[in-house]
Design goal:
The protein is α/β, with parallel strands linked by helices. The protein has 7 helices and 21 strands. The protein is globular and about 85 Å long.
Length: 450
């Protein structure tokens, strides 16, 4: 097997002073930070260093493990509150989780700290009043009141990841909490079902902020914070202030408006990004090349079939061929791939799941035919169109070039698998045919392996 790599740097002569437009605060409240192109007058969104570092990681896992693991539904349906005695993960070993992450090649992991059920994966000191009695109780729907009390799963997760240099983050849904009768971020005026508690909206907002403070102070610096479903308007300013105070460098998924390091959802959980997929814009799709907001995309998807996130009995796995396609249509289209990692009810990754993660990791690490372009986005994403041409080794005309790939955006990474397959070539060239300013290529590699 031969691996051929070509590096090409493109340099343009146009140079000019860059005019930065940014908020006058030390930490901007909004994510608007851009410059004006000296050559086209176009606004070019500028990333934060944290966003670029996050994008470069490319592959991550969402550890989808919580009370819903012990149910036959993918989450807690309707107002259902599962009995806390179900949470009995008798073989829990977070080192086992992390070994699977390493085999996959994941650079960071986000753990579901609290899902819609309301169950929290760590002990909590939060206390709050019931309505209307005013009785003060502890937030006791946590691992600290379960059959595995005495263990702090979040802490174990952080320590296991640290041993293998896996960066970490937490998923916390603000908008759903069945235990506290909350839907869409609001305490509901409806008949309570078994296990539910009645509180006021003010109490709920306070519970959220107190729990976020615990999560953001007790486990070190976080790489990413997930706001699945966003947040209510009443919590926007308090969450922004708390995030700025406690985790200013974390990437915030669905975090535009509360973080200066936002990332956006791609609009689907199937593991496919639109092409083109820009690093800018805040819409839940391929983004907007003309947006003044740098907000790169994250593509979350499942290992299990049928969009199943939590481990399910007799649930089948997506084949390796499909996962390879997912990789090319996410990472290969300028999107972070976040693949769910699903421990079963024992607290371990099932062997057949671990094997599939490793198979995908082995493929990504292997040599296969493709070209890869990486744009230096330090001063923004500027490439708008490109082509890749090759000169065949057996060509009779030395001036004859064949186009094997073309596209629009590049961003952190663009992978093109040539439709014509591997070729014996004597030359390769990358043409930037349209850009809004001087493009800088971080890397251009061609892999011809077969």
């Amino acid at each position: 097997m031969i691996k051929v790599i070509f590096f090409l740097l493109l340099l343009f002569v146009t140079q000019s002073d860059e005019h930065l437009v940014r908020n006058h605060h030390h930490r901007p409240k909004s994510s608007r930070r851009y410059r004006i192109s000296p050559s086209t007058g176009v606004r070019i969104a500028l990333p934060t260093p944290e966003q670029l570092k996050w994008q470069a990681q490319e592959l991550a896992v969402l550890v989808t493990f919580n009370m819903a693991t012990y149910l036959n539904t993918d989450g807690c349906p309707d107002q259902y509150v599962a009995d806390i005695s179900l949470f009995n993960l008798y073989l829990l070993n977070t080192d086992n989780w992390v070994q699977t992450m390493v085999d996959l090649g994941a650079q960071y992991a986000v753990l579901v700290a609290k899902h819609g059920c309301g169950f929290l994966m760590a002990p909590s000191n939060v206390r709050f009043p019931l309505n209307p009695s005013g009785q003060i109780i502890s937030y006791n729907y946590t691992v600290g009141y379960s059959p595995v009390k005495g263990r702090n799963i979040l802490d174990e997760f952080i320590k296991s990841c640290g041993k293998r240099q896996i960066r970490t983050g937490f998923y916390y849904t603000v908008v759903v909490n069945n235990w506290l009768n909350v839907l869409d971020g609001f305490v509901q005026n409806r008949t309570l079902k078994p296990g539910q508690l009645n509180i006021t909206q003010q109490t709920y907002d306070s519970v959220v902020l107190e729990q976020l403070r615990e999560l953001w102070t007790e486990y070190g610096s976080l790489n990413e914070i997930w706001f699945d479903g966003g947040y209510t308007q009443s919590l926007k300013d308090p969450i922004r202030a708390l995030l700025t105070e406690l985790q200013p460098d974390a990437i915030a998924f669905n975090g535009y408006g509360v973080s200066h390091n936002p990332a956006r959802w791609i609009g689907t959980e199937m593991g496919v990004a639109p092409d083109p997929n820009w690093s800018t814009g805040i819409t839940e799709d391929g983004g907007d090349p003309d947006s003044p907001i740098f907000c790169p995309a994250e593509c979350d998807t499942t290992l299990q079939n049928d969009d199943r996130w939590f481990w399910g009995v007799n649930t089948t796995l997506r084949p390796l061929s499909e996962l390879i396609q997912v990789y090319h249509e996410t990472v290969g289209r300028n999107c972070i791939l976040m693949l769910d990692l699903t421990p079963d009810r024992t607290g371990l990754i099932p062997p057949e799941y671990a094997s599939r993660y490793k198979e995908l990791g082995d493929f990504i690490r292997s040599c296969y035919d493709r070209s890869v372009i990486q744009e230096d986005q330090t001063n923004g994403q500027v490439i708008r169109e490109y082509t890749i041409d090759v000169q065949l080794a057996n060509a009779t005309d030395i001036n004859e070039w064949i186009t094997v790939a073309k596209g629009t955006n590049v961003g952190n990474k663009k992978i093109d698998v040539w439709s014509i397959g591997a070729q014996l070539v004597s030359g390769v060239r990358l043409n930037i045919t349209k850009s809004v300013d001087k493009p800088v290529i971080k890397a251009f590699t061609v892999h011809l392996c077969n």
